[in-house]
């Protein structure tokens, strides 16, 4: 089984690091897959990953063809979730929200992400666990990503499926 | 008495390991406790086995605590005062099977 990850545009790393981490490839935002945010002109959204916390903005991006959504505050908006389900989008869970925070903030993030994950799976929405690392400090090996996925409620089988098939399906190469 | 099953984990750090192995081990255990808590620490029962080169080491844990140990390394981003990331590269039942470890 091949495992994949997605890192932020600012994350520069040696390709051999991906191999050591047990990952087939680490995709990079805006190089391998587009990140779309405040696209007021609604251009070049299709196939990209929508980032944001405003449900209305995300809803607009999903309707215009975003392949995946990263809800930065992990808030569950039922209307947005229904649209994501209808359009077969994927929800991205950035693990850097957990690894880059500390103490109470980290616990809060884990709690919110666990709720979002549980809701998404109940509705049959696919979830991709990615590091979204801004620096190599926040990259993780595939073993660590699986454990982080379990922390927010995934079981071992789904974590592996997500890291292999779901993440790969977002990046259309 | 039944023997506890162990797992050996090969870990790579982003910064050089300069400290004496005993000091390094102590710092490591403190950080692991900080991440997973005292109640989970005893289930993991980590023990530093050996240092490999400048930036790798092998650590042993109980079989049932391996997941918690891997999680702890994902959450740990410093060792003492030095910002350090820990990548768990492999886990195995024997040190030999870790290869480079």
Q: Can you summarize the main beta sheet of chain B? A: 4 strands, antiparallel
The CATH superfamily of chain B is identified as Ribonuclease P, Pop5 subunit
Just name the CATH architecture of chain B. 2-Layer Sandwich
Radius of gyration of chain A: 15 Å
Taken together, the total number of domains of chain B comes to 1
State the separation between the terminal residues of chain A, measured CA to CA: 19 Å
Could you characterize the architecture of this molecule?
The complex is a heterodimer of chains A (173) and B (101). The mean pLDDT of chain A is 91. Chain A has helices at residues 15-20, 55-63, 78-86, 96-99, 103-122, 142-151, 156-170, and strands at 4-7, 25-28, 35-36, 49-52, 68-71, 90-94, 126-130. Chain A has a single domain, classed as Metal-dependent hydrolases (TIM Barrel, Alpha-Beta Barrel). Chain A has a 5-stranded parallel beta sheet. In chain A, strands 1-2 form a two-stranded parallel ribbon. Chain A has 173 residues and is an alpha/beta fold. Chain A starts with a strand and ends with a helix. Chain B has one domain (6-91): 2-Layer Sandwich (Alpha-Beta Plaits), CATH 3.30.70.3250. In chain B, helix 1 crosses helix 2 and helix 1 (21-36) packs across helix 3. The termini of chain B are far apart. Chain B has helices at residues 21-36, 38-44, 66-75; strands at 6-13, 47-52, 56-62, 78-79, 82-83, 86-92. Chain B has a 4-stranded antiparallel beta sheet, covered by helices on one side. A two-stranded antiparallel sheet of chain B has the order 4-5. Chain B is of the alpha+beta class and 101 residues long. Chain A binds chain B through residues 20-22, 95, 98-100, 106, 136-141, 143-145, 147-148, 150-151, and chain B through 12, 14, 67, 70-71, 73-75, 77, 83, 85, 87-91.
